[in-house]
Amino acid sequence: MGRLAVVRICRGRRLATSNRQLATFMRSPEDYISKRAQGVDASGIRKVFDLAVKMKDPINFSIGQPDYDVPEAVKIAAIDAIRAGNNRYTQTQGIAPLRERLRKEMSRELGRDVGEMLITSAVSGGLLLAIMATVDFGDEAILIEPYFVMYKHLMTLVGGKAVPVESYPDFRFHADRIEKAITPRTKLLILNSPNNPTGAVMSEAEVRAATDLARQHNLLIISDEIYEPFLYDSNGPLFSPGKLYENTVVLRGFSKSHAMTGWRVGYACGPEAIISQMTKLQQYTFVCSPAPFQYAAVNAAIDLPTTQAREDYRRKRDRVYDALSKKFEVEKPGGAFYIFPKAPKGMTGTQFVAKAIENNVLVIPGNVFSERDTHFRISYATTDAKIAQGCEILCRLVP
Ligand code: PLP
Q: What residues have CB less than 8 Å from 84, skipping those under 6 apart?
């Protein structure tokens, strides 16, 4: 009998057996942890936040959310919804007015009726549901590396395999590299444009190359478009793979566009068969996105232009890029609010981040988003004064 089987029998009790050691065995809390949870390593991000706790008033370039607050009109709409009694479960798929409005908007943008929308517990919720609905044990998903860290861990959680394909040094979409990584088990191609952590935005030609590849190899595309309002080299809209390829699950949300990261409202559209499975899974996991915030999204957020935020962050992008490109090897980002410079010669990303932290600037090492430790991520969603101060310090640290 295996150790675990014995433990199961004697769970929490002393047993009179001849083997004293086994007889007194009790499960420690760690013994309850699943292999699934153990397979997820959160140490990279945790180390950074542990360091941040010890810093006094750091120049914080690590925050992955806008530096402005939820717009007043959206707050009022949420308060009104709470006062009006919209505090209960909604339909799992989300409230009808929000779904209908988003269906109209997305259909107009993608040039076809996108079908039923699912309101998710922000984009993280949509990602988990899309991956749970499609990935079987051993199925593979191609991620463009560096990647938003959640993709890899969600694949691990469902028993799938994340297959990172490098986009260094230019962070462009390299169809030839991706094609080489496709195997008979490849089911998903996960795209994220504008990208976290590089800020890269896929051009129309790159999106065409991605959808051609997906069609050729029967891949489902999951397109994480959470930073879609933050485009700096065009006035949008984003050229989504959903425009060209119906086997695309598009995920968007209000977290970044309206600074609603704590409110958990996102949405998904895609093939009916997949959206309906995601809806079923939402019923047994998130249940629904929070009711008052769904009302705030449809009664206020959706009609608020995001042009001012886009202009502000475009200016910040230019300032950061102009300052850092004098000293660092760095690509000019086209969107989101991140930039991903290479650490100075002779230093790993982690070594440079340690130096930056010693000098009170908090940045994230690139190996949190990558198998490589060569770069670091800056979020410039902060004040112009902090940007100037922080960039000045980082440039000074280059030998
Ligand atoms: N996708 C990307 C690329 C992100 O950067 C983030 C958050 O940082 C998310 C998804 C999750 O966002 P949400 O707050 O909508 O769950």
A: 295
**261 Cβ inside 6 Å of ligand 1:** yes
Amino acid at position 49, single letter: F
Give the number of C-alpha atoms closer than 13 A to the C-alpha of residue 238, restricted to the C-beta side.
27
**What are the 10-residue block averages of pLDDT along the chain, 399 residues in total?**
41 49 75 91 74 83 91 97 98 98 98 97 98 98 97 96 98 98 98 98 97 98 97 91 98 96 97 98 97 98 92 97 97 98 96 93 94 96 96 96
Q: Scanning the structure block, which residue is given the tokens 């886009």?
A: 310
Inter-residue contact 387 to 319 (CB < 8 Å)? yes
Ligand 1 midpoint to CA 336 (Å)? 11
Does this model's pTM top 0.90? My answer is yes
Tokens at 32, concatenated: 């309850």
β-pairing verdict for 220-224 and 186-192: parallel
Measured in Å, residue 226 CA sits from the centre of ligand 1 at 6
Q: Alpha carbon of 40 to those of 33, 44, 113: distances in Å? A: 11, 11, 38
Which residue, chain included where needed, has tokens 């997906």?
214
